[in-house]
Structure formats: C-alpha cells, structure tokens
Amino acid sequence: DKEGRIMNEKLLNNIRQVEPYTPGEQPQTKVIKLNTNENPYPPAPGVARAIAQMDVDRLRLYPDPTADSLVSALAENYGVEKDQVFVGVGSDDVLSMCFLTFFNSEKPVLFPDITYSFYDVWANLYRIPFERQPLDENFKIKKEDYYKENGGVIFPNPNAPTAIYEELEFVEDIIAHNQDVIVIVDEAYVDFAGRSALELIDKYDNLIVVQTFSKSRSMAGMRIGYAISNPVLIKYLNDAKYSFNSYTMNQTSLCYGVEAVKDKAYFEETVHKIVETREWAKGELRRLGFVFPDSKANFIFAMHPEYDARELFEALKAAGIYVRFWGSRRIEQYLRITIGTREEMETLFAFLTTYMNKGE
Ligand code: PMP
Q: What is the pLDDT of residues 18-77, one digit of tens each?
C-alpha cells in the first residue's frame, strides 16, 4: 500500500520470518565501551605492520577460497592437521554453518536457557526443532538435561552471558552421552577460562569446537572465527560453505588473521592482563554490593540488589560508559560488564562509587 506496507497475508506467509538477534550498541564516538565483550588492547603488532604494507592491488583478485594461509597458521598453532580446521567470517558465521550442516534431525537440538541468543535465531531460521534447557538457580548448566534423546547439542563454555566455565570433565560427560549426534562447544571465551575441549577432538567423533578472533585476539572488527574437529566433520562443513559462498574469507582478513595467530607472546600477555583486571574487578564489584556468578570470561554478569539495572545502565551511559543491559526475562536486573583496561575499569568504579555514595 501507499505507506510501503505489504497487506497480502499469503505473500507474507511465504517469507521466512525470525525474531532477529539484537546486538549491543556500537557507538561511533569515543566512549568507555564495555558492552560487547571486545578486547581493550590492540591486535598483535604484526597486524599493524601487515596493514601498513598491504598491497592494494591484491584486492583485484578473489581471495583463496580454501583460506589456506589462515587454516595452516591455525593448524600449526593448535597442533592439528589442516583438514581439521574450518574458518569463517566470525564464529557467528561458523556456528550458523554448523547449525545448517549438523542439525538435521526431527528431534530437538538442546541448548541452555539462558545462553547466546543467536542459537534461537539460527534454529528458527533453518527450521531446526530445538528445546531450551533451563539453567539451575545459580545459572549453571545441568548436564543431565543433555542426556535425553536429541538432535544435537550446543552450548558455550564459558556460557554467555553468565561467564560460568565448566571443567573439561563436565564438558566430556555431555559429549560422551551424545555420541550419535553432533555436540558443538562454543568456546568464544575459553582463552580467559581454562582447558579447551580441543583436547577431546581425537577421542570423540561427534565433537566440534568453535573459537573466535574477536575476544582473546582483539580482532572483532576483522570477523574471523574457526571450527576444529576431525577431518570428516570439517569436510561436511566445507562442502556446505563452498555451496553457499566459496569466497567466504576476504583477502585482508586472511592476511591479518595469520599475523594475529603468529604472535603467541602478545596473545598470552594481553589475555593475562585481562584476567588480572577481571580478578581485581570482582573485588571492586563486591565492595560496591554487586552479586555475580564467578566469571571465567572477559566479562562479568552482575546485579545489584538495591539498584535497578535499567537505571544503572542509563546512568552509566549518560556518563559515557556503555555496558550491556537486556531487560529480558529472568535477567532483567542484570548487567554484563566487559573487562576493559585497568584505567577504564577504574573510571567505571569511580563513577559507581560516587553514584552509590559508597565513598569514604
Ligand atoms: N559465541 C558466543 C558465546 C558469543 O558471545 C559471541 C560474541 N557475540 C560469538 C559466539 C560470536 O562472536 P564472533 O562472531 O565475533 O566470533
């Protein structure tokens, strides 16, 4: 009609409609940005050097569809074969490709409630039946919920947004109980946490581990993620990818991604700094009266018994400090605070101290 609406119900019913994922705000002005779990430190110095030396003429050419340079760098880094590595445009792309490729059953795919809210979106988009498994009262995953018959399992470890990490034995129990279906362990934050399920890929044929350059490697803007598994599952993923978009990775992300993987010392140093700041920040949050599950990620999922989360969120935002607030079911009183630099966190806590009159 004149206002640009489509009134034809039949036509609309032929369109696949999903409730979209709502990402955190990305303000384009300089603020203290603690709302989307980015890394506060720059990418490895080799990335900046590679950017300075970039040969623009290479952009004329299609990128390598096999992403061989990046796949090789990752394989070397993790001590696996090249045919065990799949790369994509952020782990979102990798995970969405995994949903398409591996969740192919009439039985429901199981994932936690609450968890990364993109899982719902992909399941709906691809018409995959799913069943959310509620967390316990302490926001922990109940592993027995994943022992029933299902069409696949996916969960993040550490979980998001709770930041709770489960030990490898716990993860292995879920994998071991589900050997007829694919289990995807989304390890976006594992580098801040502890042992990775990568240790189990030779032991279980049904395991896919997904990781990202967006958090521990400071490259959210470059959009690189990867899956590591056995060669059979990786081949299925590549078959799907080549059918959809063989040139998934662009020329620049391939080149800069390799640089980011090479510099292990820088990676370890920045991860260490974030973990140190996180541990200190927990004490500050406690001092201010916040409560939160113990975080092993680069963010803390916190609530204050005396302050409304929306009001805190708005007050912080007005002060130029962005944190994540959802206002949705069960977590309406929670904020998720990304670990920034020590200085950024000091500014946050100084603001909260004044706001809550908690100064001496
Ligand atoms: N998994 C989880 C659990 C996440 O929190 C995120 C970040 N939003 C992602 C995957 C996707 O990150 P990216 O696409 O930047 O790799």
A: 888 888 888 888 899 999 999 999 999 999 999 999 899 989 999 999 999 999 999 999
Please tell me the distance between residue 99's alpha carbon and the centre of ligand 1 in angstroms: 14
Q: How far is the CA of 91 from the centre of ligand 1 (A)?
A: 6
pTM value is 0.95
Tell me, in angstroms, the distance from the centre of ligand 1 to residue 120's CA.
14
DSSP 53-112: T--GGGGGSPP-TT-HHHHHHHHHHHT--GGGEEEESHHHHHHHHHHHHH---SSPEEEE
CB of 91 closer than 6 angstroms to any ligand 1 atom:
yes
The answer to whether the CB of 214 is under 6 A from ligand 1 is: yes
Per CATH, which fold does 18-42+265-355 belong to? Aspartate Aminotransferase, domain 1 (3.90.1150)
Atom of ligand 1 nearest to the CA of 214: 15
CATH topology of domain 46-262: Aspartate Aminotransferase; domain 2 (3.40.640)
